[in-house]
Amino acid sequence: MRIARFAAGDEVGFGLVQTDSDSGEEFVARLSGHPLLGDIKPTGERAKLSDIRLLSPVLPTKVVCVGKNYADHVAEMRDITGESTDEPVVFLKPSTAVTGPHDPIFHPEISERVDYEGELAIVIARPCREVPRDRVKDVILGYTVANDVTARDLQKKDKQWTRAKGFDSFCPIGPWITTGMSIEEAQDLAITTTVDGQIRQEGRTSQFIHDIPDIIAHVSSFMTLLPGDMVLTGTPAGVGPVEVGQEVSVTVERLGTISNRVVARD
Question: How far apart (Å, rounded) are the C-alpha atoms in residues 4 and 16?
Fold first, then answer.
Protein backbone atom coordinates (compact mmCIF):
# COMPACT_ATOMS: atom_id res chain seq x y z
CA MET A 1 0.00 0.00 0.00
CA ARG A 2 0.93 3.64 -0.44
CA ILE A 3 -0.37 5.64 2.51
CA ALA A 4 -0.46 9.40 2.04
CA ARG A 5 -1.28 12.26 4.37
CA PHE A 6 -2.88 15.12 2.50
CA ALA A 7 -4.79 18.38 2.68
CA ALA A 8 -7.93 19.03 0.67
CA GLY A 9 -9.41 22.44 1.36
CA ASP A 10 -9.54 22.84 5.12
CA GLU A 11 -9.39 19.09 5.79
CA VAL A 12 -6.34 16.98 6.57
CA GLY A 13 -6.54 13.22 6.36
CA PHE A 14 -5.00 9.95 5.24
CA GLY A 15 -5.63 8.02 2.07
CA LEU A 16 -4.39 5.20 -0.11
CA VAL A 17 -2.74 6.29 -3.35
CA GLN A 18 -4.13 4.14 -6.14
CA THR A 19 -4.28 4.10 -9.93
CA ASP A 20 -7.55 4.10 -11.85
CA SER A 21 -7.65 0.93 -13.93
CA ASP A 22 -9.44 2.66 -16.83
CA SER A 23 -7.83 6.10 -17.09
CA GLY A 24 -4.46 5.30 -15.48
CA GLU A 25 -4.87 8.45 -13.38
CA GLU A 26 -3.68 8.40 -9.78
CA PHE A 27 -6.12 9.22 -7.00
CA VAL A 28 -6.35 9.11 -3.22
CA ALA A 29 -8.95 6.85 -1.62
CA ARG A 30 -9.78 8.55 1.67
CA LEU A 31 -9.42 6.67 4.95
CA SER A 32 -10.95 7.24 8.33
CA GLY A 33 -8.76 6.77 11.39
CA HIS A 34 -4.99 6.85 11.68
CA PRO A 35 -2.63 4.24 10.14
CA LEU A 36 -0.39 4.25 13.22
CA LEU A 37 -3.35 3.32 15.42
CA GLY A 38 -4.41 0.43 13.21
CA ASP A 39 -8.00 1.59 12.83
CA ILE A 40 -8.09 2.81 9.22
CA LYS A 41 -11.17 2.16 7.09
CA PRO A 42 -12.06 3.29 3.57
CA THR A 43 -14.69 6.01 3.48
CA GLY A 44 -15.69 5.43 -0.14
CA GLU A 45 -14.57 8.95 -1.09
CA ARG A 46 -11.73 9.65 -3.44
CA ALA A 47 -9.91 12.63 -4.92
CA LYS A 48 -7.54 13.09 -7.83
CA LEU A 49 -3.92 13.32 -6.74
CA SER A 50 -3.69 16.56 -8.70
CA ASP A 51 -6.51 18.09 -6.63
CA ILE A 52 -4.95 17.60 -3.20
CA ARG A 53 -1.77 18.74 -1.47
CA LEU A 54 0.50 15.99 -0.21
CA LEU A 55 1.86 16.60 3.30
CA SER A 56 4.65 14.87 5.18
CA PRO A 57 3.22 11.34 5.52
CA VAL A 58 3.85 11.30 9.29
CA LEU A 59 4.57 13.79 12.08
CA PRO A 60 7.40 12.05 13.96
CA THR A 61 8.35 12.77 17.56
CA LYS A 62 11.96 12.62 16.34
CA VAL A 63 14.00 12.01 13.23
CA VAL A 64 16.93 9.69 13.85
CA CYS A 65 19.62 9.87 11.19
CA VAL A 66 22.56 7.64 10.35
CA GLY A 67 25.69 9.22 8.94
CA LYS A 68 28.69 7.66 7.19
CA ASN A 69 26.69 4.70 5.84
CA TYR A 70 28.09 4.66 2.29
CA ALA A 71 31.83 4.17 1.85
CA ASP A 72 32.03 6.56 -1.12
CA HIS A 73 30.28 9.30 0.87
CA VAL A 74 32.64 8.74 3.83
CA ALA A 75 35.54 9.26 1.43
CA GLU A 76 34.19 12.52 0.00
CA MET A 77 33.38 13.94 3.47
CA ARG A 78 36.45 12.75 5.36
CA ASP A 79 37.76 16.29 5.96
CA ILE A 80 34.51 17.30 7.70
CA THR A 81 33.12 14.18 9.36
CA GLY A 82 36.12 11.86 9.66
CA GLU A 83 36.44 8.15 9.01
CA SER A 84 33.75 5.46 9.14
CA THR A 85 33.16 3.64 12.43
CA ASP A 86 32.38 0.11 13.55
CA GLU A 87 28.94 1.21 14.78
CA PRO A 88 26.39 3.45 13.00
CA VAL A 89 26.97 7.16 13.55
CA VAL A 90 23.67 8.55 14.86
CA PHE A 91 22.39 12.11 15.12
CA LEU A 92 18.96 13.71 15.46
CA LYS A 93 16.91 16.21 13.54
CA PRO A 94 14.10 17.97 15.41
CA SER A 95 10.52 17.25 14.42
CA THR A 96 10.25 20.89 13.34
CA ALA A 97 12.68 20.21 10.49
CA VAL A 98 10.10 17.93 8.83
CA THR A 99 8.28 19.30 5.81
CA GLY A 100 6.25 17.95 2.92
CA PRO A 101 7.31 16.37 -0.37
CA HIS A 102 6.78 19.56 -2.38
CA ASP A 103 7.18 22.28 0.24
CA PRO A 104 10.00 24.85 0.06
CA ILE A 105 13.39 24.43 1.69
CA PHE A 106 14.31 27.68 3.42
CA HIS A 107 17.92 28.75 2.92
CA PRO A 108 19.10 30.32 6.20
CA GLU A 109 20.84 33.67 5.87
CA ILE A 110 23.69 32.59 8.15
CA SER A 111 24.74 29.71 5.90
CA GLU A 112 26.76 30.13 2.72
CA ARG A 113 26.39 26.49 1.67
CA VAL A 114 23.26 24.35 1.95
CA ASP A 115 23.60 20.77 0.66
CA TYR A 116 21.15 18.05 -0.41
CA GLU A 117 21.46 14.47 0.86
CA GLY A 118 19.00 12.01 -0.69
CA GLU A 119 18.10 9.06 1.53
CA LEU A 120 15.86 6.09 2.19
CA ALA A 121 13.80 6.58 5.37
CA ILE A 122 12.25 3.96 7.63
CA VAL A 123 8.92 4.62 9.37
CA ILE A 124 8.47 2.97 12.77
CA ALA A 125 5.17 1.19 13.42
CA ARG A 126 5.02 0.77 17.19
CA PRO A 127 6.84 1.63 20.42
CA CYS A 128 10.02 -0.40 20.62
CA ARG A 129 13.38 -0.60 22.33
CA GLU A 130 16.24 -3.10 22.37
CA VAL A 131 14.97 -4.70 19.17
CA PRO A 132 17.01 -7.77 18.14
CA ARG A 133 18.03 -8.05 14.50
CA ASP A 134 15.59 -10.87 13.80
CA ARG A 135 12.63 -8.82 15.09
CA VAL A 136 13.34 -5.58 13.23
CA LYS A 137 10.82 -6.40 10.50
CA ASP A 138 8.07 -6.40 13.14
CA VAL A 139 8.58 -2.74 14.08
CA ILE A 140 8.70 -1.24 10.57
CA LEU A 141 5.52 0.25 9.12
CA GLY A 142 7.08 1.07 5.77
CA TYR A 143 9.53 3.23 3.86
CA THR A 144 9.60 6.69 2.34
CA VAL A 145 11.94 9.20 0.70
CA ALA A 146 13.90 11.87 2.59
CA ASN A 147 16.32 14.72 2.00
CA ASP A 148 18.71 15.30 4.90
CA VAL A 149 19.34 18.97 4.07
CA THR A 150 22.53 20.25 5.70
CA ALA A 151 24.15 23.65 6.21
CA ARG A 152 27.59 22.28 5.36
CA ASP A 153 29.61 25.30 6.44
CA LEU A 154 27.95 25.29 9.87
CA GLN A 155 28.54 21.56 10.21
CA LYS A 156 32.24 22.14 9.63
CA LYS A 157 32.34 25.17 11.92
CA ASP A 158 30.41 23.65 14.85
CA LYS A 159 32.25 20.28 14.87
CA GLN A 160 28.89 18.67 15.63
CA TRP A 161 25.76 18.52 13.54
CA THR A 162 22.73 19.77 15.46
CA ARG A 163 22.50 23.29 14.08
CA ALA A 164 23.59 22.33 10.57
CA LYS A 165 20.91 19.64 10.30
CA GLY A 166 18.16 21.18 12.39
CA PHE A 167 16.80 24.23 10.58
CA ASP A 168 13.07 24.35 9.84
CA SER A 169 12.33 22.68 6.47
CA PHE A 170 15.63 20.74 6.49
CA CYS A 171 13.90 17.33 6.35
CA PRO A 172 11.50 16.99 3.41
CA ILE A 173 9.86 13.55 3.41
CA GLY A 174 7.28 11.74 1.29
CA PRO A 175 5.52 11.49 -0.99
CA TRP A 176 3.86 8.68 0.97
CA ILE A 177 4.66 5.60 3.06
CA THR A 178 5.08 2.39 1.07
CA THR A 179 4.16 -0.68 3.10
CA GLY A 180 4.47 -4.39 2.37
CA MET A 181 8.12 -4.20 1.31
CA SER A 182 10.52 -6.67 2.88
CA ILE A 183 13.81 -5.58 4.42
CA GLU A 184 15.62 -7.48 1.68
CA GLU A 185 13.76 -5.48 -0.98
CA ALA A 186 14.39 -2.19 0.82
CA GLN A 187 18.11 -2.95 0.86
CA ASP A 188 18.39 -3.03 -2.93
CA LEU A 189 16.79 0.19 -4.17
CA ALA A 190 18.24 2.88 -6.41
CA ILE A 191 18.56 6.42 -5.00
CA THR A 192 18.88 9.38 -7.36
CA THR A 193 19.14 13.08 -6.53
CA THR A 194 18.82 15.80 -9.16
CA VAL A 195 19.17 19.59 -9.05
CA ASP A 196 17.13 21.36 -11.72
CA GLY A 197 16.93 18.03 -13.54
CA GLN A 198 20.67 17.34 -13.51
CA ILE A 199 21.74 14.12 -11.76
CA ARG A 200 23.96 14.76 -8.76
CA GLN A 201 23.69 11.53 -6.75
CA GLU A 202 23.26 7.93 -7.85
CA GLY A 203 23.53 5.00 -5.46
CA ARG A 204 21.85 1.87 -4.18
CA THR A 205 20.82 0.88 -0.70
CA SER A 206 22.73 -2.35 -1.29
CA GLN A 207 25.83 -0.19 -0.66
CA PHE A 208 24.95 0.35 3.02
CA ILE A 209 27.83 -0.18 5.43
CA HIS A 210 25.33 -0.89 8.22
CA ASP A 211 22.16 -2.67 7.07
CA ILE A 212 18.62 -1.96 8.24
CA PRO A 213 18.55 -4.58 11.03
CA ASP A 214 21.87 -3.23 12.37
CA ILE A 215 20.58 0.34 12.29
CA ILE A 216 17.31 -0.33 14.11
CA ALA A 217 18.92 -2.69 16.63
CA HIS A 218 21.62 -0.10 17.37
CA VAL A 219 19.32 2.92 17.67
CA SER A 220 16.76 1.08 19.80
CA SER A 221 19.52 -0.11 22.14
CA PHE A 222 19.76 3.38 23.63
CA MET A 223 16.45 5.14 22.81
CA THR A 224 12.82 4.15 22.57
CA LEU A 225 11.37 4.55 19.11
CA LEU A 226 7.73 5.60 18.88
CA PRO A 227 5.09 5.11 16.17
CA GLY A 228 5.75 7.46 13.29
CA ASP A 229 9.38 8.10 14.18
CA MET A 230 11.64 8.32 11.16
CA VAL A 231 15.03 6.66 10.77
CA LEU A 232 17.10 8.02 7.87
CA THR A 233 19.67 5.53 6.59
CA GLY A 234 22.44 7.69 5.12
CA THR A 235 23.29 9.21 1.76
CA PRO A 236 25.47 8.05 -1.13
CA ALA A 237 28.31 10.08 -2.64
CA GLY A 238 27.67 13.17 -4.70
CA VAL A 239 26.38 15.59 -2.09
CA GLY A 240 26.65 19.24 -3.02
CA PRO A 241 25.13 22.68 -2.70
CA VAL A 242 21.81 24.08 -3.83
CA GLU A 243 21.13 27.76 -4.31
CA VAL A 244 18.02 29.86 -3.84
CA GLY A 245 15.73 29.27 -6.83
CA GLN A 246 16.93 25.75 -7.57
CA GLU A 247 14.79 22.64 -7.19
CA VAL A 248 16.20 19.48 -5.67
CA SER A 249 14.47 16.14 -6.26
CA VAL A 250 15.16 12.83 -4.56
CA THR A 251 13.85 9.59 -6.03
CA VAL A 252 13.99 6.18 -4.38
CA GLU A 253 13.10 3.28 -6.63
CA ARG A 254 9.55 1.94 -6.01
CA LEU A 255 8.88 4.64 -3.39
CA GLY A 256 8.46 7.83 -5.40
CA THR A 257 9.95 11.31 -5.67
CA ILE A 258 10.05 14.41 -3.51
CA SER A 259 10.82 17.77 -5.16
CA ASN A 260 11.53 20.89 -3.13
CA ARG A 261 12.50 24.38 -4.29
CA VAL A 262 15.06 26.33 -2.28
CA VAL A 263 13.81 29.77 -1.27
CA ALA A 264 15.04 32.65 0.84
CA ARG A 265 13.23 33.09 4.10
CA ASP A 266 11.33 36.38 4.22
Answer: 6
- Judged by DSSP in three states, 100 sits in coil
Contacts of 40 (CB under 8 A, 6+ apart): 14, 31, 32, 33, 34
User: pLDDT tens across 147-170, in order?
Assistant: 999 999 999 999 889 999 999 999
Do 1 and 12 contact (CB within 8 A), yes or no?
Answer: no
Q: Which residues pair with 28 in a beta bridge?
A: 17, 47
pLDDT in tens, 200-213: 999 999 999 999 99
Side-chain-side CA neighbours of residue 24 (13 Å): 0
Whether residue 110 contacts residue 163, with contact meaning beta carbons closer than 8 Å, is answered with no
* 79 — pLDDT class (breaks 50, 70, 90): low
Q: Which domains does the chain have, with CATH numbers?
A: 2-54 (2.30.30.370), 63-264 (3.90.850.10)
Residue 256 main-chain phi, psi, to 5 deg: 120, -170
Asked if pLDDT for residue 136 goes beyond 90, the answer is yes
